[in-house]
Amino acid sequence: MVSLLAPDELLKESMNENYGKIVTKELIEKWIKNPSEAPGRAVSSPWPERIDIESSERVSDGKYKIKGFIIEVTSAEKTSGEIAAKREITLDVEKINGSWVISNVVMGNYK
Fold it and tell me: Does residue 75 sit within a domain?
């Protein structure tokens, strides 16, 4: 899990370790400069547990737009199976050099 409040060097290391194989280098660099635009743990609780996909749309050959919600939980919700919060997220996913990677993320509002 990426802690968005980590010191710069630890944040960079954590983002590369956790997102390096699934996110473009350009997007990771953008997030390192502005962590508030990145998905990850911003406070100790609640924390992001998963992304529930609501829709996917083919934009072009090799590019999709995925819309969903980041599901956040605390230890209580983790046990009960409920959620503490959910936040809109839109991801652009592209096939680059034979691999599918996230090329852009827009964080939306909490619901």
Answer: yes
